[in-house]
From TrEMBL:
The lineage of its organism: Bacteria, Bacillati, Actinomycetota, Actinomycetes, Mycobacteriales. Keywords: Oxidoreductase. It comes from Mycobacterium adipatum. Residues 30-490 form the Aldehyde dehydrogenase domain. GO terms for molecular function: oxidoreductase activity, acting on the aldehyde or oxo group of donors, NAD or NADP as acceptor. The keyword Oxidoreductase applies. This is Aldehyde dehydrogenase.
Length: 494
C-alpha cells in the first residue's frame, strides 16, 4: 500500500497547459492547488489559464484547421493517433497515480478510467481509418434532368471540449479522440478539480506524438469563465460537454449566438425498476455496490430504486447489509472499493440533501453522515433512504453521492410512471425473472439506455446519449463518430 506519507503514492502532475504546440504556464504565472480528496492535502498545482489563454488556444486551433491539411490527411491522423495510443500505454501507471491522487478513485476500480479510455484511442483510430467518408446516394430526377448525389463526410471544424471531474481521463479522451480522428482541431478545458488528467494528456501529445501545433490544445483554469469563453467563442464550430444540466443549459445558450453544434451529456436521476419476480439476491447487492464504487459520482447511476410493495422490506434489508459492509477508505489500498467525495463542498451538498430528505419525510435506513473511522478525507457513509416520495427533491435532483432513494410501487404501470417522472432521461435499469416482461418495461422507460438484469448497455460500439434534459446527441458507436462530421451532399452530373 502506498500513501502520501511515504511519497510513493500521491503524485504531483503536470503544471503546464498546451497551447499551439507549446507546454506553458499562464503569463502571470498564477497556479492553483490540486487537493488530494483522500488526505485533504495539497498534492500540487496547475497553471491557472485565463480568458486570454483560451483565446490564444482557440486561435491556434482555428489556424491549424484552416491552414494545414490535418482535416484532409486521414493517413497522418491515423499515424498520430496510433502514436498517441502507444504513448498512453507507456504512461499508463503514471496516469493511474494521477487519477487516484486528484479524484480519490480506488486503485481497484481504475480499470474503466485508465485501460478503457486508452483502448478507445485504438478503437477510434481504426474506426476512423475504415469509415466511408464518401457515399454514393444515387441519381434522382430534377426539372433540369438527372443528377447524382454524393455525400461527403467532413470535419466540423474547431471543437471545444469541456469535461467534468468524476471520470476525467476517460472523458478527456472520449470527447477529443473521435473529434481528432474525424479531422477536427480541438481545445480541451478540463475541470478545475482535476486539471492533471488534462495537462498530462497535453504533455503526452506534445512530447510523444507528431500531432502538429494547434491541432490539440489544453487550457487548465480555476475559473468557470474560461470554459464559458470557449463555449461562446465565434471561432469554435462545435462544443462537446459532459457535466451538470445547469452548465449544459449555459453552454447551449452561449453557443446560440453563432448556432454552434452542441453535444451534451448531462445529469441523470436514473431509476432501477426491480420487478417482483427479480432475483433480489443478485440485483440488490449490485444496486448498492453501484452507488458506492465511484462514491456515487456517476451520471448513469440508478439512484432511485423502485421496489414492489410485496417484497419491499426484503429488498431494503439486502441493500442495507451491503452498504453497511462496503469497503470504504484509502483509495491506494486495493481492499477498498469506495473512496472519498471529490471535495468538501461536494460532500456537504450530499449530506445536506440527505438531511433535507429526512426532514421532508424519507426514512433513513443507514448512513447519512461521515464514517467514524475516516475523519480525514472527504468520505461519506453509504446512505439508504426508504419511503421516498417520487416528487420529493431527493427523488428528483441528482445527488452525486453514495445515496439510494427507495420508492415503493404496486404495478408495472405505476413503476414505469414513477421512473419517467423526471426531467432527466439518461439511463435506466430493470431486474426481473421473466425477460419478456422486463424487456417490455425497458422499452417504456424514456431514457437513452437501459440495463436489464445487470447486463450493461455501455460500450464503445453502442450509441450512448440522454433523452429529455440529460443531453443532446451521442457518444460511442457509429453515431458517436458521425457527431464530429458534417454530411455535405454534392449534386453532380451522372
Ligand atoms: P460541477 O458543478 O460539478 O463542477 P459542471 O457541470 O459545472 O460540474 O462543470 C463541468 C465543467 O464545466 C468544468 O470543466 C467546468 O469548468 C465547466 N464549466 C462550468 N461553468 C461553465 C460555463 N458557464 N460555461 C462553460 N463551461 C463551464
Amino acid at each position: 500500500m502506498t500513501s502520501i506519507a511515504d511519497g510513493t503514492g500521491v503524485l504531483a502532475g503536470e503544471q503546464r497547459m498546451l497551447i499551439d504546440g507549446e507546454l506553458q504556464l499562464t503569463a502571470g504565472g498564477t497556479l492553483f492547488d490540486v487537493i488530494d480528496p483522500a488526505t485533504e492535502l495539497v498534492a500540487g498545482q496547475a497553471t491557472d489559464g485565463t480568458v486570454d489563454d483560451m483565446a490564444r488556444a482557440v486561435g491556434a486551433a482555428r489556424r491549424a484547421f484552416d491552414e494545414t491539411d490535418w482535416s484532409r490527411d486521414l493517413d497522418f491522423r491515423y499515424h498520430c493517433l496510433s502514436q498517441l495510443h502507444a504513448a498512453l500505454e507507456r504512461n499508463k501507471e503514471h496516469l493511474r497515480r494521477v487519477l487516484i491522487t486528484e479524484v480519490g478513485c480506488p486503485v481497484k476500480v481504475t480499470g474503466s478510467q485508465i485501460e478503457s479510455p486508452i483502448d478507445e484511442v485504438k478503437h477510434w483510430a481504426e474506426h476512423g481509418k475504415n469509415f466511408d467518408y464518401l457515399a454514393d446516394n444515387g441519381v434522382h430526377q430534377t426539372p433540369l434532368g438527372p443528377a447524382r448525389r454524393k455525400i461527403h463526410y467532413e470535419a466540423v471544424g474547431v471543437v471545444g471540449a469541456i469535461t467534468p471531474w468524476n471520470v476525467p481521463l476517460y472523458l478527456n479522451i472520449a470527447e477529443t479522440v473521435p473529434a481528432l480522428m474525424a479531422g477536427n482541431t480541438v481545445v480541451l478545458k478540463p475541470a478545475q478539480l482535476t486539471p492533471w488528467s488534462g495537462s498530462e494528456y497535453g504533455r503526452i501529445v506534445a512530447e510523444e506524438t507528431d500531432i502538429p501545433p494547434g491541432v490539440f490544445n489544453v487550457v487548465t483554469s480555476n475559473a468557470n469563465e474560461v470554459g464559458a469563453a470557449l463555449s461562446a467563442d465565434p471561432r469554435v464550430d462545435m462544443v462537446t460537454f459532459t457535466g451538470s444540466t445547469a452548465t449544459g443549459r449555459a453552454i447551449l445558450a452561449a453557443g446560440a449566438a453563432t448556432v454552434k453544434k452542441t453535444l451534451l451529456e448531462l445529469g441523470g436521476k436514473s431509476a432501477h425498476i426491480v420487478l417482483d419476480d427479480a432475483d433480489f439476491g443478485m440485483a440488490l447487492p449490485m444496486a448498492a455496490l453501484m452507488a458506492c464504487v465511484m462514491s456515487g459520482q456517476s451520471c448513469i447511476l440508478p439512484s432511485r430504486i423502485l421496489l414492489p410493495r410485496s417484497r419491499y422490506d426484503e429488498g431494503i434489508e439486502i441493500m442495507k447489509t451491503m452498504m453497511e459492509n462496503f469497503p470504504v477508505g484509502d483509495p491506494w489500498d486495493p481492499a477498498n472499493m469506495q473512496g472519498p467525495q471529490i471535495s468538501e463542498t461536494q460532500r456537504q451538498k450530499v449530506l445536506g440533501m440527505v438531511a433535507e430528505a429526512v426532514d421532508s419525510g424519507a426514512r433513513l435506513v443507514t448512513g447519512g453522515g461521515v464514517p467514524d473511522k475516516l475523519p480525514v478525507g472527504y468520505y461519506t457513509q453509504a446512505t439508504l433512504l426508504a419511503d421516498v416520495h417520487p416528487d420529493s427533491r431527493i427523488a428528483q435532483d441528482e445527488v452525486f453521492g453514495p445515496v439510494l432513494a427507495v420508492i415503493p410501487y404496486d404495478t408495472d404501470d405505476e413503476a414505469v410512471a414513477i421512473a419517467n417522472n423526471s426531467i432527466y432521461g439518461l439511463s435506466g435499469e430493470v431486474s426481473g425473472g421473466d425477460l419478456d416482461r422486463a424487456f417490455a418495461v425497458a422499452t417504456r422507460m424514456r431514457t437513452g439506455n437501459v440495463t436489464i438484469n445487470g447486463k450493461s448497455h455501455f460500450g464503445i460500439d453502442s450509441p450512448f446519449g440522454g433523452t429529455k434534459q440529460s443531453g443532446l446527441g451521442y457518444r460511442n458507436g457509429a453515431e458517436g463518430y458521425k457527431e464530429y462530421l458534417t454530411a455535405k451532399t454534392i449534386g453532380m452530373p451522372e
